[in-house]
Amino acid sequence: MRRGLALSAAGLLGVGGVYVLAIGFTPVEARQGLAQKIFYLHVPAAWCALLAFSIVGIASALYLWLKDPRLDRFAAASAEVGVAFSAVMLTTGPIWAKPIWGTWWTWDARLTLTLFVFFLFIGYLALRAALHDPAERARFSAVVGILGMLLVPFVHLSVYLFRTLHPQPIVLKPSAPSLPPEMLTTLLVSTLVFTVLYLGFVTASYGLALADEAREEARDAG
Amino acid sequence: MPDSLRLALVIAAKDIRAELRSRTALQSALVFAALVLVVFNFARDPTALAATDLAPSALWVTFALAAMVALNRAFNVERENAALDGLLLAPVPREALFLGKLLANLAFVGTVELVTLPLFMLFFNVSLGHALPGLIGVAALATVGFVAVGTIFSAMAVRTRFAELMLPVLLLPFMVPPLIAAVQVTSRLLADRPLSEMWGWLRLLALYDIVFVTLCMMTFPAVVDE
């Protein structure tokens, strides 16, 4: 818990640093102007959201195999944090899209995919909240986690057959990244910072769940 | 496996027999589906949008909502008098139990869809003609996938406080890929397009069915066994 808070604090400080870098260090993009700056928050948030959800799927599968309650707690913490990062991704996206695309929202492949992943994990957390028995909650949410992980490629495939408007990858692509070194450095720093933030949040949330369980046990013991 | 299959059929037959004796759920689901179709007709501006443009989406939203109503029922009936415990005590492999429940749900949802189809033709002024076998085929292909996921979620949802709400929240994201594919194929079928234009979507539907029926069958024991 304490470690989680310390990591989160470090991450938050880092976010401050990213703001400084994004505003002072990176050049203004020629065509998009200042709107492009949101990229340094949007892309790392999206990265963390997808990381969080992949980890939920993997932890769920491992839970059904090993039946270790730590895995279940870990998956739950990761889902919670993933929802938070998705919310950042889904709000920064439209703010950028309005001046650049001329619309807040479009039913583009990647937008639809992330929106549904977001809904999926809201459902995951809602199910957890609606169940009392910890063992049952762990088994049920593990099943949803696994099914959810396999749903993602299907949503991607089905919405991809509609044309996509989202900018194509500029960093992770076969040829060299096609952006100025200042931009790339800032993006990489930001991604690192967000990952630290993710780890901090998950550790804190995990500690909170542990403390909660201890409290329940103490109450039941009288 | 033949033994499991026989057991699955026994379980499905039990569910269907129970449903045929009361018929309440089936009747409500049918009336519900008809009402959704009617509502859809008024949700459209007739001067701006032709009925045929809206027809494929209206059909599939109706099917999806009717399936949701039907799936809510699937494990609710097992809750009364702890019937599920009895089923679980019987020497039935969990896979067979899941398959039986899935078959019963498919029979239920399939009946609703088959009855809705003529109503759809009537209300939306669509003459299906030679598109009918194709439409039934794609309906079967799409329905198998989301009913499989719905069956396992329905078993989970009955254990929660707001079961009627929990099922749609969990299931709707899973309905999206089959619904998108089914709407695309349906509109191409209605427009008499060649099979080659639907092939990609049909493969997606088949893949979805294979992946999710297998996965649900594998994870079902984790839902019912303590």
SSE layout:
The complex is a heterodimer of chains A (222) and B (226).
Chain A lengths: L1 H24 L13 H28 L2 H33 L7 H22 L3 H27 L20 H41 L1
Chain B lengths: L1 H21 L1 H19 L8 H29 L3 H7 L4 H30 L8 H26 L5 H28 L8 H26 L2
Characterization of this structure:
The complex is a heterodimer of chains A (222) and B (226). Chain A has 222 residues and is mostly helical. Chain A contains six helices and no strands. The longest helix of chain A is centred in the last third of the chain and has 41 residues, at 181-221. The longest helix of chain B is centred in the middle third of the chain and has 30 residues, at 94-123. The model of chain B has no long low-confidence stretch (mean pLDDT 88). The radius of gyration of chain B is 18 Å and the shape is globular. Chain B has helices at 2-22, 24-42, 51-79, 83-89, 94-123, 132-157, 163-190, 199-224. Chain B is mostly helical and 226 residues long. The interface between A and B is medium-sized, with 28 and 32 residues.
Keywords:
heterodimer, A: 222 residues, mainly alpha, 0% strand, globular, B: 226 residues, 8 helices
- In whole angstroms, the N-to-C terminal distance of chain B is 24 Å
Number of strands of chain B: 0
Strand content of chain B: under 5%
Report on the biggest sheet of chain A: none
Quote the distance from N terminus to C terminus of chain A: 25 Å
**Strand content bin of chain A:** under 5%
Pattern of helices and strands of chain A: HHHHHH
Calculate the mean pLDDT score of chain A and round it: 83
User: Major beta sheet of chain B, specifics?
Assistant: none
Identify the overall geometry of chain A: globular
Count of DSSP strands of chain A: 0
Continuous helix count of chain A: 6
Rg over CA atoms of chain B: 18 Å
Q: Biggest interface between protein chains, with counts per chain?
A: A-B, 28 and 32 residues
Q: What's the rounded overall pLDDT mean of chain B? A: 88
Helix content of chain A: over 70%
Structural class of chain A: mainly alpha
**Helical proportion of chain B, percent range:** over 70%
Count of discrete alpha- or pi-helical segments spanning 4 or more residues of chain B? 8
